[in-house]
Amino acid sequence: MIELTEQTFDNYLQNAEKPVLIDFYATWCGPCKRLKPELEKFNESNDTVSVATVDVDKFRDKLDKYNVMSVPTLILFKNGKETKRASGFMSQEELNKFVEA
């Protein structure tokens, strides 16, 4: 998993060769802390989607652009465009279903 910043976010999405699942999280968020190991397992077992994270406390300028109102928020991007989103904790199984559907 890669940690994106405001400086690297757009470039990463534009140059991604496969869909990108981005986890918008906060270090103080309980569900975010529970989600992180699930995302790590998902990332290790999945080669069709890239996984990246964004610390919302360091990413204020673009939160409005992506309409992130709560954390964790997961957004799946294909060809640089948002295709779906979900908020809250997900297990590794739920993550697999989310990106496949």
If you had to describe this structure to a student in words, what would you say it looks like?
The chain has one domain (2-100): Glutaredoxin. Strand 4 and strand 5 form a beta hairpin. The chain has helices at 9-15, 30-45, 60-63, 92-100, and strands at residues 2-3, 20-25, 50-55, 73-78, 81-87. The two termini are 22 Å apart. Helix 2 (30-45) crosses helix 4 (92-100). It contains 4 helices and 5 strands; from the N terminus they run E-H-E-H-E-H-E-E-H. It is globular, with a radius of gyration of 12 Å. 36% of the residues lie in helices and 27% in strands. A 5-stranded mixed beta sheet has the order 1-3-2-4-5, with helices on one face. By secondary structure, the chain is an alpha/beta fold.
